[in-house]
Amino acid sequence: MIFKIAFKNVWRNKVRSLIVIVAITLGLAGGLFTVSVITGMVDQKVRSGINNEVSHIQVHNPEFLKNFESRYSIPGSDSIAGIISKMPAVKAICLRTRITGMAASPNSAGGVQIIGVNPEMEKEVFSLYSGIPDSAGGFFIGSRKNQVVIGWKLADKLKVRLKSKVILRFQNSDGDLNEAAFSVNGIFHSSNTIFDETNVFVKKGDLDMITGNDNGIQEIALILDDVEKVPVIETMLQSRFPALLVQNWMEIRPDMGMITTAISIEVYVILGIILFALAFGIVNTMLMIVFERTRELGMLMAVGMSKSRVFRMIMLETIFLTLIGGIIGIGLSTALIAIFHRHGIDLSAFSKGLGAFGFDPKIYPFIKTKLYIHLSFMIVLTGILSAVMPARKALLLKPVEAIRVE
Amino acid sequence: MNIIEIKNLIKVYDEKTMPVFALNGVDLAFRQGEFTCIVGPSGSGKTTMLNMLGGLDTPSNGQIVIDGTDITMLKSRQLIDFRLRNIGFVFQSFNLIPVLTAKENVEFIMQLQGVNKEKRDKRTLELLQSVGLGEKINTRPNKLSGGQQQRVAVARALASKPKFILADEPTANLDSKSAENLLEIMEKLNREENVTFIFSTHDARVVAKAKRVVTLEDGKIVSDIPKN
Fold first, then answer.
1. What is the rounded distance in angstroms from the CA atom of residue A168 to the CA atom of residue A165?
2. What does DSSP assign to residue A253?
3. A323, A378, B104, B114: which sits with the fewest CB atoms below 10 Å from its CB?
4. What percentage of residues in chain B have a pLDDT greater than 90?
5. Residue A181's beta-bridge partner residues?
6. What's the predicted TM-score (pTM) here?
7. How far apart are CA B130 and CA B188, in angstroms?
8. Are B97 and A8 a contacting pair, CB within 8 Å?
9. Is the pLDDT of residue B33 over 80?
10. Residue stretches of chain A with pLDDT short of 70
11. Chain A touched by B91 (CB under 8 Å)
12. Cβ–Cβ gap A295/B81 under 8 Å
C-alpha cells in the first residue's frame, strides 16, 4: 500500500512532477550523449591504435626497445611464434622486422620506422590495409619487388604519390648502412597523423635482399579473440619467455592506456555532477511536497502510521520521481546515441586538429552496457540521498500540530 | 466497566515562562458504548482533552488508562501502535488521502494492521455500506461531497475495530443536511454496534444527539450530565 500511495502521490501535482521529470530526463540525456561522444572518440582512437598500430600484445627483445637497434632481434623467433600461435585466445600473430631509418624523396626527407612484414600474416593481425581505398593503391598488390606502403602524411611531406620512388636509408643488423629505392604501392590513412608520418611498410624479403642477410625478427605482434583476456595471456607469455619483454597495448602506448583510464573516470564525474545538480531540484520539490502535505502526514501518523512507514513513503516518492526521469532520460539518450552511432558525427572540419591527437574526424558515439547499469544505481542513489532531507522533515512533524495546519 | 479512565489530568503550556493550564486536574471515565460530547467555549481545553485521549499529546501530569493500559507511560513508537489498534479518529476537515479511493482509504488502516486481503475487502465493503456509500467505493475524495467524505472518514475510523472513536468537531465543515445525515449514521453505529463515540463540538445538533455531555471551562469539568 505504501508503494501504491507513493506512486500515486507522484502524480498528485502533475505539472510539478513533470517539470522535475523533464529536468532529470534532459539532464541525463544530455549527459549521456556527451559521455557517448567522448567514449566513442576514445574507443575509436584505442581500437584504431590496436588494429592499425600496436595490436593487443607485442613481444620484443628487451634491448631492442632501448634504442630500437635492429641487431637486437628475437632469438628463435620462428619456434616462439609457433608456440604462441597455439596458445588459447590467440587469434593471429605476425612477425615483423623493425629498422629505424630515413625516407627521402627529391623534395624532402624524414625519419621513419621501417617495418618489414609478411603481408599475409600482417593482414591477419592489423587492419591498416583495409582502410586503403582503391584510389590509394593497396597493401602490396602484385609481386613486384621493393614496394613500400606509406602514410598519407609522409606522402604529403615527401610530395610523392602512388608509384613515386622513395629512397629508404637504414642501418642493417650488422651495422652497415644500406639504401634502396622503393616504389609507393599504397598510401594508408590511419586516424593518427603522427603514425602516418613516421611509419613505412615494406616486405621483409625485400629488406633482407637489400641487406644481403636476414635482419631477424624484432617484433611479434598478437591479436586475441577478446581484449579482456590480454592480462592473462600477457602473464602466460612472460612466464613462458622470461628472456623476452612482453607488453600489452597500454604499456606500448601509455597515452592510449591513460586516456582510457581517464575517460572511464571522467564519465562518472560528468554524470555525478549532473545528478548532483539535479538532486537539488529534487530535494526542493520534495520539501515543497512535504510542506504542502503537512496535515495529511499528521493524519497518517495520528491514525497509526509508523514513522518508518512515513519515511519509506517519502523515500519511495522521491525514488519514483527520480527513476521515472532517469528511465526516460536513459531511453531518450539510447535512441539518440543509436541514431548517431549509425550515421556518425562528422567533424571533418576539425580533422587536422583531431588527427594530430589520433582522433578520427567521424565519431560514432556509444556507451558501454556496464555504464547503464552503474548509472541506474547512481540514479537510485541520487533518489535516496535526495529523499533524506524531506523524509527527515516529515518525521519531525508532530501529529498533534500537523493535523491542524491549514 | 470503564474503557477509559482519566485521573487528575493536567496539561500546562509554556510551563516555564507564562504557564497556561489547558487542563487542570480532570477526572473522567467513559464506558463502552457511550455517545459523549465534550463541550465548552474556545480555550476551555476540549481539543487538548481529545489530543490526550488520542495519545497525540502528552500530559504534564495525571494518568489516562485505556482498557488497562496507562498510555501516558507509553513510548512514542508504542503510542503509534496503540493508536492504530485501539483508537479511531474523525477529523474536522475529513483528512482523507486524496489519491486513494473511498475503499482504499478505509482499507489502508487495516493494511497497516496487517489484516489479510480477504478480510479487508469484506470489512471495507460492510463499513462503506453501513455509512451509505456502498455505491461510491471506487470514488476518490475529490468526487465526493463533504458529507460523503466525512462518512468515509467514519468508516475509516471504524476499520481498525477501535475501542472508541474520537471525533473533533466532525460536523464543523458540513451543511446541515450532511451533518444530520452523518449524526444519524454515528448514532445508528452506536446503537446497533455499541461503538463508543467521544466528540468535541460546538454544534448544538451533535449535543442534542449525545447521551452524555461533559462541559469544560478553563481546563476543568464544570458539568457532566448523562441524558436518556
1. 10
2. -
3. B114
4. 61
5. A167
6. 0.76
7. 9
8. no
9. yes
10. 173
11. yes
12. no
CA distances from A330 to A20, A30, A32, A333 (A): 15, 10, 8, 5
2.60.120.10, 3.40.50.970, 3.40.50.720, 3.40.50.300: CATH of B34-56+74-226: 3.40.50.300
pLDDT at A352: 75
Q: Tell me what pLDDT residue A84 has.
A: 94
Using DSSP's 3-state secondary structure scheme, residue A117 falls into strand
Say if B56 is an interface residue toward chain A (CB within 8 Å).
Answer: yes
Taking alpha carbons only, the member of B94, B79, B87 closest to residue B30 is: B87
CB contact under 8 A, A304 and B111: no
Interface test with chain B among A293, A303, A403, by most B beta carbons within 10 Å: A303
pLDDT digits (tens, 9 = 90+) for B143-172: 999 989 999 998 999 898 898 999 998 888
B89 touches chain A (CB under 8 A): yes
**C-alpha R_g of chain B:** 17
What is the nearest CA distance from A393 to chain B, expressed in angstroms? 17
Q: Tell me what pLDDT residue B214 has.
A: 95
Confidence check on the interface: ipTM exceeds 0.85, yes or no: yes
pLDDT, tens only, B164-183: 999 998 888 888 888 888 88
Q: From A235, A239, A211, A209, select the one nearest A224 (Cα to Cα).
A: A235
Domain ranges (residues) in chain B: 34-56+74-226
Tell me, letter by letter, the H, E, C secondary structure of A150-192: EEHHHHHHHCCCCCCEEEEEEECCCCCEEEEEEEEEEEECCCC
Interface test with A, best of B13, B80, B87, B164 (most A CBs within 10 A): B80
B29 to chain A, any CB pair closer than 8 A? The answer is no
Contact B95 A8 (CB under 8 A): no
Give the gap in angstroms from C-alpha A280 to the nearest C-alpha of chain B. 26
pLDDT in tens, B202-228: 888 889 889 999 999 999 999 998 876
| B161 CB within 8 Å of a chain A CB | no
Q: At what angle do helices A254-292 and A294-302 cross, to 10 degrees?
A: 80
